[in-house]
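Standup notes
- DV: blocked on the single-chain target, sequence here:
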Amino acid sequence: MGIQNYYGNLKEKLLRLTRKEEPAKEIAHPPRLHNLGEEIRILVHSPSFEKAYSTAAPFLFANLGAWPGYWLFRGMDYHVHRSHIPLPIYIRQTYYQAKMVQLFIILAGTYTVFRNTNRLRLMNANRVTKS
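- DV (later): unblocked, structure below
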């Protein structure tokens, strides 16, 4: 049924009329499965990743302390705002503000890593052109 069946039947009729046998098709080797874990392992053990991680490590550790620290700060500061801001709204504001603090810390770390990487590339390019 359908166009594939029609062409299959037509091919069989033509082969019977011409009495030619269809050459045997070689079975191709199946493609290798993409091993993402191996690629990640190679990436993590590369010197460039190690250098980038050591540059970003202070920002990552600061980010670990920023979330509970900001919540603690906002919790201690609630007594000033409790007369005019209800607690659920204050908690929601604290949540979004803490997320923004984390985002800025991560962006600062990312910027630092990229800036150092670009400087390293420029230094290597200058060394190549001088020699």
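- Follow-up: DSSP finds four helices and no strands in the chain.
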